[in-house]
Amino acid sequence: EHYGVTKAALEHGKHVFSEKPLAADMKEGTELMAIAKEKNLLMGGAPDTFMGAGIQTARKVIDDGLIGDVIGATCAMIQHGPETWHPDPDFLYKRGGGPMMDMGPYYVTALVQLIGEAVGVTAVTKKSFKERLITSEPHYGEKIDVEADTYLTGNITFANGAIAQVFTTFDVYYPSQNYARFEIYGTKGTMIVPDPNTFGGPVLLMRPEDVAATHSDPGLRTGNLPAYAGYKEIPLLFDYNVNSRALGLSDMCKALRTGRDFRANCQQQYHVLEILTSFEKSSREGKFIPLTTHYTRTAPMKNNPMHGILDD
User: Fold this and answer.
1) Contact, 3 vs 28, CB < 8 A?
2) Angle at 248 between CA 236 and CA 99, to 5 degrees
3) How far is CA 76 from CA 56, 133, 214, in A?
4) pLDDT (tens digit, 9 = 90+) per residue, 86-120?
5) CATH at 270
């Protein structure tokens, strides 16, 4: 519904900050971008979690060269779907829904903030189940006819040569505490990025000097090692490490007052929308999908001595 509501507001001369994603497809998104430009209105939207302490600290780790040049990334959002807890889950399986359009914005927005502009997508996607049984109230026992793909896996190629593997699904039974996976690989180390649907940490860093060299076949090892053995936790270097929804809206309001740019802007939303919608397009057409939108990273966050006051 974001397209219709946003269009009506823009046509009435209002600046708009919306929930994610910008629209359900690129045709809608392109129209909204044109209206906002024609009427000289600000348009932006969620997610704004990338503005939190976790992703901003991860960005500084990369920008300061602590993992070297970014080689690639792996992101995964793995769960069995919202029909076990959501009070009205039907729309999440219809046009504009599915795990990539619903949860993918958090991961893809964080990726472009950390790595930069993407140039193309290749993917394979599917629907594992034709219908879903609702076990939450008030629609307990009702069934949903599935329209959107619910198992999506693919690669995003970035302008700097990095490649990110992205996997989102509503089809897999998986421990809820581990549903989010996010790793960034560089020429000098690896970083574990926190759940991009949150504002906090932890941010974990591993460099070669942090791990004892091994000269044997890893398959011959015995015993269980901690999952993140060898990683060091990086202190969060920015404010907003707790749930701070509407931080992006506050930043947009500051931009309206000062004339500066804002971070969760429509250029970012539009680029992310093209990436998200290109997964199913690539799978359907069986080919690499070059992107037509362009993206420049928005400014990193700055610390202010007073909580809640954003920089000029």
Assistant:
1) yes
2) 85
3) 20, 24, 28
4) 999 999 999 999 999 999 999 999 999 999 999 99
5) 3.30.360.10
Mean pLDDT over each residue of the chain, to the nearest integer = 95
pLDDT reported for residue 216: 66
Cis bond before residue 290 (omega within 30° of 0): no
CB 208 within 8 A of CB 200: no
How far, in whole angstroms, is CA 134 from its chain's centroid?
26
Give the whole-number percent of the chain exceeding pLDDT 90: 89
Cβ count near 90 (within 10 Å): 16
Task: Look at the chain and report how many structural domains it folds into.
Answer: 1
Helix extents (H) in 39-157: 53-63, 98-102, 104-115
Q: Pick from 283, 289, 280, 286: which is nearest to 118 by CA?
A: 289
Host domain of residue 278: 2-211+227-290
Q: 298: which 2 tokens?
A: 């928005």
Angle value at C-alpha 302, between 301 and 306, nearest 5 degrees: 120
DSSP state of 265: B
User: Which pLDDT band, with edges at 50, 70 and 90, does 133 fall under?
Assistant: very high
Residue 305 located in a structural domain? no
Radius of gyration of the chain (CA): 20
- If you count DSSP H runs as helices and E runs as strands, how many of each does the chain have, helices first? 7, 13
Instruction: Output the CA–CA distances (angstroms, integers) from residue 91 to 5, 172, 196, 242, in the order listed.
Output: 17, 19, 23, 28
Q: Is residue 170 part of a domain?
A: yes
Per the CB < 8 A criterion, the answer to whether 63 and 258 are in contact is no
Burial label, 299 (beta-carbon count in 10 A; 0-12, 13-18, 19+) = exposed
Residue 171 · residue 83 · CB < 8 Å: no
- The DSSP letter of residue 138 is S
Q: What is the pTM of this model?
A: 0.96
* 189 lies in some domain: yes
